[in-house]
Design a protein that fits this description.
The complex is a heterodimer of chains A (425) and B (810). Chain A has 425 residues and is an alpha/beta fold. In chain A, 30% of the residues lie in helices and 18% in strands. Chain A folds into two domains: 12-163, NAD(P)-binding Rossmann-like Domain (Rossmann fold, 3-Layer(aba) Sandwich), CATH 3.40.50; 167-344 and 373-413, Dihydrodipicolinate Reductase, domain 2, CATH 3.30.360.10. By secondary structure, chain B is an alpha+beta fold. Classes of the chains: A alpha/beta (425), B alpha+beta (810).
Chain lengths: 425, 810
């Protein structure tokens, strides 16, 4: 059976790194300075929560798409301008390396397309900057391991964007499972929204507001098309930029919760197999629906599917009951389990009430975040292996310690890929 | 099928190492395609599958590409995945023949392949004038590791800009030495990096290496770094020191404590808390007395992990009378303390100045043995402790605590105590197998109770519900005390949730006591709403009887919420009438739209309410919003948009204004202006303009199954800046697909239905038409035909102007 984390690793709560901030905004010298790398839709969802922190200052927005970067910087300046700031301090960058070279930037939020997560995170760690990175963790397993190593080497604080861990419903569900309230687990089902099919990518001249070569970065070269740039039906569902589309893009949220509930966060499965339905044409080439099965040693089978196979979320079924949890809802069998908090001598999982605040507090205290890099890498690895398994259509035996597929040369070739020059880990 | 997916799926046909002839055939076919020099855009579709089946036979084709800027990455992509000694040799051989980006790429790939033979040539690149190349060399040597790589990195004179990268690579080499058991080599690197003349970031790397290598010099260097003026160095040293294994670390930190600045003390304390070593308990207690709030906060948290019974009294003291922002943390720590004697120590604080905090902690800890002690505290004179004791008993006591808690409730002069006792009684009765029998103490106390106590007991009954509760509350609405009557009405209206209370509430709503009427009216309406979905006709009849009760804004809102559940014409008519009330206009409009459109309810579809009542209600909605459209045309919001859409139309000209996320995906967000049609039909329009709220703002002609956001549909239109397109959603709530075509507005668009076939066309002049696409979409015979638009920007409003709109039935 895989190693379980000691209880002390989980004995932390949001009070762990709480600061006694005075009411109102912190003095400029006490604020953490932040930069956003990536100014697209998901970056926008982080803007409000971070602008409204009293002890942070957003000083830079970076995106190869100048329109997006300028629009977001203007919003930042407007926000600070109405709060007594100078209203023009947020600088715009095209190339993230210039942001990393700024000694006055303490931390970065990485909201780029997936294929950039590794390089930007590693560059930030090397520059001594703390990182909040959107999920998925990485595009390949090799990249993920390199990220974990760089973060540890430089001792920066990292938060993975699996924000469900800071949602009390998920924590309570995992505590029930971890404390054996539903008895021995005999099956687990993880279900996430399915992928998409799109029309073709229509090549067009590169607009003057976009550095297409930089946007592509380490990914294979392709001509510019607005369809490829669109994250609704473009890059998000392309294998060049993402490992399996929503297998990683959405699946990692619930796979990560399944890991948390089972206590297998620091290891990986021993076998994995599955099948998928792929688009029949168009730009998107990642699975639309999938059915994957994996297990840890002789542990219970875990089904990981698109949500046409069952309710979105995570369901653990045990000999004494069951727990199902998703965003905004959960259900226990028996019902009474939902009202049973853990006793003092039972496992109390890390209690974070706000994912951004947890990251910021941990930056100041040095404490571990609720979604640290090794955990993110292991959850991502399950998603990446799922993508490989459905493409190959056969069972893979995985060595989680060596991070290699056993006796399958083709599968091992898919664990990584050569980056487009001049980029490298 | 997408060629790349096909390439991958070929492997599903059972291609394994055993089926070499099949792999060879595939490889040969793919190489043949590559030799044909396909355009760059098509190349990756060949490269990806080739990378999975390639053998050394691919090397002669690909190796020459390594020096070609247009094809080098494609060659490396395959050769990297091939990974044979021959492939690696080909990559290595190319290294001296290229420069700039290509060289940087090759260096990276050789490092990815862990090619030890490449260390020497890559080390040469450390001196390259191109920093992309020398930087790549630094990174690569760090990943390759080994004595030669480490030595070359240590000896290299790299430009200032690469010094940090070089040091990172050295640290990576050290990690590999440690993994291989060569701790001496690692220590040498660590001492080098940690040298006092180095920048702070490099010193941090070095200290980390020394700790990982178990160096005997680590602790002394870390303690020195704690006193360094560079804050980054000091903070990292503090964390590292607190993580060093060994029993003496806590003792050393205790000795250094007073010399540390408060920010460092906070960092050390947080790290000790994570470490979980109970030897840190006394230090954490000492830190509680710090004048610095961050230090105290870190200590409070750490004590939950490292504290024991000795921490109980100080924590309880803070939880009682500490700063507001620390009381909660102290309480959390009390709940988490481990070790023998903690619960007993808490018990000893009752009674006493910290009794309330101790009681709360015992409840958090579910220490059932404290029940007797807590019951005594609940009945005591310390009201704060009494209230906390009641709350704790709710969590840990058994059924035998109900009777004494009822006594506490009845005797309490303090409202907080009484409320806490009430909640506890309710919590303890609810889970019992026979709650009605468990009510006995409450019923026994009721006749002799009065005032607040009586209301609290009735409150218990209201929460628990059942026949007895209904009877007692119904009796109580005629009690002599006005406050009891008011409470009973409120309980029947809001808490009990029993439709058998409807007649009582109706009587009170029409009764002589004005003070009771609002609660009774609203409660009556609320309870009607609970039964409406199951019994719509009965509910509508009851509403008709009770029209005199629709008197205020709150009542009208409740009426609308009831009507939403009654999908009958009368309900739509009333909702339409309520549109004229300004105070509920928005809700009334939403109710009309909800009822006049089909809705999904789980796996079933609720049909739309149609007929003259529905038409009249929709007319009322449009008139209220100032929307003027030709007869039979309706404005229908697709999804929730803010602001709501507006439209004007006459003589074939339409002007739409709307927000919305997009007409796309599984649900559209924007505006629909349409009329019903049956059978084969064609809709034509000239899209004169679209205001560019986003390059993907859209406007065009549409045929939809209905007005739900996820309806099956076909669309022919333009975007503001990304050309024209045909879109279709084949099934309700299915994904949308599209076929692009060139041309922004102004543009003529046309959509024709022949049975299940839909044809989308474009024209520059309305005369010569070009087909965009033809698709099969199964729609019902009766559909909505018209115009649709979306701003593709929920924060903006687009304006789409249409001319010459014609809907022609065939």
């Amino acid at each position: 059976m895989p190693a379980s984390l000691s209880r002390r690793d989980f004995l932390a709560s949001s009070a762990a790194a709480a600061l006694a901030l005075r009411a109102g905004r912190a003095a400029p010298s006490e604020r953490l300075t932040l930069a956003f790398i990536g100014a697209g839709g998901i970056a926008g969802s982080h803007l409000g929560p971070l602008l409204n922190q009293s002890d942070t200052q957003l000083v830079a927005i970076c995106d190869p798409n100048r329109q997006r970067a300028e629009s977001m910087a203007a919003a930042v300046d407007k926000h600070y301008g109405t709060r007594g700031g100078r209203g023009h301090d947020c600088r715009v960058y095209r190339d993230f390396r210039e942001v990393m070279a700024r000694s006055d930037v303490d931390a970065v939020l990485v909201a780029t397309p997936d294929h950039w997560h590794a390089l930007v995170t590693i560059a930030a760690a090397r520059a001594g900057k703390h990182v909040y990175s959107e999920k998925p963790f990485s595009r390949t397993i090799t990249e993920g391991r390199a990220m974990v190593q760089a973060i540890a080497r430089h001792g920066v604080v990292f938060q993975h964007g699996t924000q469900q861990r800071s949602d009390g419903l998920f924590r309570r569900a995992c505590e029930l499972v971890r404390n054996g309230r539903i008895g021995k687990i005999h099956s687990v089902h993880v279900a996430a929204p399915g992928g998409r099919q799109s029309g073709p990518a229509v090549p067009q001249p590169v607009p003057d507001w976009l550095d297409w070569d930089l946007w592509l970065g380490p990914a294979p070269w392709q001509p510019y098309s607005p369809q490829r740039l669109d994250n609704g039906f473009g890059w998000y569902f392309c294998e060049d930029y993402s490992a399996g589309g929503f297998i990683s893009g959405w699946g990692i949220h619930h796979v990560d919760i399944a890991q948390w509930g089972l206590g297998t966060e620091l290891t990986g499965p021993s076998e994995i197999e599955g099948s998928a339905v792929f688009p029949t044409g168009g730009l998107c080439d990642t699975p639309i629906t999938w059915k994957v099965r994996y297990r840890f040693g002789d542990g219970p089978p875990i089904r990981f599917t698109s949500d046409d196979e069952g309710p979105d979320g995570v369901t653990w079924e045990g000999e004494g009951g069951s727990v199902w949890v998703t965003r905004g809802a959960w259900r226990t069998t028996p019902d009474s389990l939902a009202h049973e908090p853990p006793a003092p001598d039972e496992i109390h999982l890390y209690n974070s009430r706000d994912h951004h605040r947890n990251w910021l507090d941990c930056i100041r205290s040095g404490a571990r975040t609720i979604a640290p890099p090794e955990v993110g890498h292991r959850s991502q690895s399950i998603c990446t292996l799922s993508d490989i398994a459905v493409r190959l259509g056969r069972k893979l035996r995985w060595d989680p310690a060596a991070e290699r597929v056993i006796d399958d040369e083709t599968a091992n070739r898919l664990l990584s890929r050569a980056m487009r020059e001049p980029w490298s880990l | 099928m997408n060629a790349r997916i096909l390439g991958g799926l070929l492997l599903l046909a059972g291609v394994t190492r055993a089926a070499e002839s099949s792999r060879a055939e595939q490889e040969a076919a793919l190489l043949a395609q590559l030799r044909g020099d396909p355009p760059a855009a098509a190349r990756q579709a060949i490269i990806e599958p080739l990378s999975l089946v390639a053998s050394n036979a691919a090397i002669p084709v690909l190796a020459p590409w390594l020096g070609d800027p247009q094809r080098s990455h494609a060659a490396r992509y395959v050769l990297y995945r091939l990974g044979t000694p021959e492939a690696v040799a080909a990559l290595r051989a190319a290294l001296p023949k290229v420069d700039g980006k290509l060289k940087a790429g090759l260096i990276g790939t050789l490092a990815d392949l862990h090619d030890a033979a490449s260390v020497a040539p890559i080390a040469e690149a450390l001196n390259d004038a191109d920093t992309e190349v020398s930087g790549a060399a630094c990174r690569a040597l760090g990943r390759l590791g080994g004595p030669l790589a480490a030595a070359r990195l240590r000896a290299a004179h790299v430009p200032e800009a690469l010094a940090a990268l070089r040091d990172d690579a050295l640290a990576a080499c050290a990690e590999q030495f440690i993994a291989a058991g060569a701790k001496g080599e690692a220590e040498a690197i660590g001492l080098d990096l940690a040298g006092a003349a180095r920048p702070a970031a490099s010193r941090v790397l070095g200290l980390r290496v020394l700790v990982a290598a178990g160096s005997g010099q680590a602790s002394a260097l870390l303690e020195a770094a704690l006193r360094d003026p560079d804050r980054t160095l000091a903070v990292n040293a503090a964390r590292l020191l607190a993580g060093v294994p060994g029993a003496d670390v806590v003792a050393r930190l205790s000795g250094l404590w007073d010399a540390l600045a408060p920010p460092l003390q906070a960092v050390v304390m947080a790290a000790l808390g994570e470490r979980g070593d109970v030897a840190a308990g006394p230090l954490a207690l000492r830190a509680l007395a710090s004048p610095d709030a961050t230090v105290r906060g870190a200590a409070l948290h750490a004590l939950g992990a490292v504290g024991d019974a000795a921490a109980v009294a100080p924590l309880a003291d803070i939880a009682t009378s500490g700063r507001a922002d620390e009381r909660g943390a102290a309480r959390e720590a009390l709940a988490r303390l481990r070790g023998a004697g903690v619960d007993e120590a808490l018990g000893k604080l009752i009674p006493g100045p910290s009794a309330a905090a101790a009681a709360a902690a015992l409840g958090d800890r579910r220490y059932a043995a404290a029940a007797t002690l807590l019951l005594a505290a609940a009945a005591g004179t310390d009201t704060k402790a009494a209230a906390e004791a009641c709350r704790a008993l709710a969590k840990l006591a058994g059924p035998d605590a109900v009777t004494p808690l009822v006594k506490v409730l009845c005797a309490a002069a303090d409202e907080d105590v009484r409320e806490a006792a009430r909640a506890a009684v309710t919590a303890l009765i609810k889970p019992q197998a026979d709650p009605a029998a468990a009510l006995a103490p409450v019923l026994a106390a009721l006749p002799t109770s009065a005032g607040e106590a009586r209301r609290a007991l009735l409150g218990v009954l209201a929460e628990l519900g059942g026949d007895v509760a209904l009877a007692e509350l119904t009796k109580a609405v005629t009690a002599p005390e006005p406050e009891v009557r008011r409470f009973a009405v409120q309980a029947l209206a809001e808490t009990l949730d029993d439709p058998r209370a409807l007649p009582t509430l109706l009587t009170i709503a029409r009764g002589p006591e004005a003070a009771l009427q609002p609660a009774a009216r609203q409660g009556w309406l609320r309870l009607l709403g609970h039964q409406a979905a199951a019994r719509p006709a009965e509910t509508v009849a009851a509403l008709a009887d009770g029209r005199d009760l629709w008197t205020g804004t709150a009542e009208r809102r409740l009426v609308l919420s009831v009507l939403r559940q009654c999908r009958v014409p009368q309900a739509v008519q009333w909702a339409g009438e309520l549109v004229s009330h300004v105070d509920v206009q928005a809700e009334a409009e939403a109710t009309v739209r909800y009822l006049t459109g089909p809705q999904r309810d789980g796996n079933q579809t609720l049909p739309a309410v149609t007929g003259p009542e529905a038409d009249a209600a929709l007319e009322a909605v449009q008139a209220a919003r100032g929307i003027h459209l030709p007869a039979g045309w309706r404005l229908l919001d697709l999804g929730e948009t803010n602001p709501k859409g507006l439209a004007r139309g006459a003589d074939g000209a339409f002007d739409l204004e709307c927000s919305g996320a997009d007409l796309w995906g599984t649900a559209d967000s924007g505006l629909l202006v349409a009329r019903p049609a049956k059978g084969d039909v064609t809709v034509t329009a000239r899209v004169a303009s679209i205001k560019e709220t986003d390059p993907w703002a859209k406007a065009g002609v549409v045929i939809r199954a209905d007005a739900t956001p996820g309806a099956a549909c076909a669309f022919s239109g333009c975007s503001a800046h990304n050309g024209a397109l045909m879109q279709w959603r084949a099934t309700a709530s299915g994904e949308t697909q599209y076929q692009p075509a060139p041309g922004d507005a102004p543009q003529w668009v046309r959509l024709t239905r022949h049975g299940d076939q839909f044809v989308a066309e474009l024209s520059a002049d309305g005369k010569a038409w070009i087909k965009i696409g033809e698709q099969t979409v199964k729609l019902p015979a009766e559909v909505l035909v018209g115009l649709a638009a979306s701003a593709h920007n929920v924060g903006a409003v687009t304006r789409a102007v249409f001319e010459s709109v014609v809907v022609a039935a065939e």
